[in-house]
């Protein structure tokens, strides 16, 4: 099933069907996936899952009107009907001055960049079970761990292909490996849980079961007997595991579609000095073995590395073709294709460049602050930038991490938070969004 050449042929054939059905232009995307996962709890096999899927999505244009449709039935009869139905829908749709395929002169041409996204190793169920058991065993061996929510291991492969009626046909294959565990420490009402996990394109890049299990267990045990925080204004330090969410809010606000709708707190701030000049944020779709690496975007445009924030200054928006037409710009290679519908907008492998000081140095002058290791809820207003989320973590007392604290809220406004943000030098590379330890002064804490 997962053959990139066959996937490209399927996408191209669907575009041909759409043209024969009366479309003026069309593009088609193919997604194929196969995965296997094993879940172990308390040393016993709990769940085995194997899934395989393939689906296509078709977008057609009739004049200035368009329609999108998808299907998991890839028989010839079903695809003929799919194409005819899409064209009929487009003929009934209203005109859209911004609809259309990507500019032909920006399409990815020539050999695609080699990104090393496929690992030839395909572990079977026995190997996955062994890894799941090993990560749970490592976590349960830590003193203070009293129960387990299970260890899991998974592996999969995927294929994406895209074809357009103005000459683009391309596809690529990916692999994935993951390992995770969640455990409980303590007893009764004082129990605390935590987890850890990793994902990678290649098995060789995955952290060991022992490392992941130990990390999850130590996190859970350290959370026992949490105290309360007094309400007030104080410095907040974000663990790298949660700090990436701040970049996520930035990326959502940089989407050209949000800017065009005036539904972003960054409207009118293009080119503005948003962060301190020490902060640079990079997007790299060509990172070898990256979790979001891709040789072309969801419209067939070439992708390229880019500084999203350079020395603190915002460099522009993330745009697919529709957003670029609305904003009078050029698409940036950030179109994203899901299971159906028009392309969305997404960044790829994103990171904040590391600072020049260690995490210990970053917080050395904090007399009274908080180190956040978990964020709860979705209290972020993308239009105003107002930020308020439940949190847990540890007190910082005289520059040192002290006892655990829980049930408090951190609040501010993202514009003010970005201006006050500083970064340590401990950047790691095992997520799609990677950040070092981050510090933001002057946030409001709502505690006891």
From TrEMBL:
Where do the Metalloprotease TldD/E central domain residues begin and end? 119-224
Q: Name one GO molecular function term.
A: metallopeptidase activity
Pfam families per the UniProt record, alphabetical:
PmbA_TldD_1st, PmbA_TldD_2nd, PmbA_TldD_3rd
What sequence ranges are listed for the domain Metalloprotease TldD/E N-terminal? 26-90
A Gene Ontology biological process in which this protein takes part is: proteolysis
Q: Which residues form the Metalloprotease TldD/E C-terminal domain?
A: 231-447
An annotated GO cellular component: cytosol
The record's annotation in InterPro entries points to:
Metalloprtase-TldD/E_C (IPR045569), Metalloprtase-TldD/E_cen_dom (IPR045570), Metalloprtase-TldD/E_N (IPR002510), PmbA (IPR047657), TldD/PmbA_N (IPR035068), TldD/PmbA_sf (IPR036059)
Coiled-coil spans are none
PANTHER family in the cross-refs:
METALLOPROTEASE PMBA (PTHR43421:SF1)
Q: Which family does it belong to?
A: Belongs to the peptidase U62 family.
The protein's name in its UniProt record: TldD/PmbA family protein
Naturally occurring in which organism (per UniProt): Novosphingobium flavum
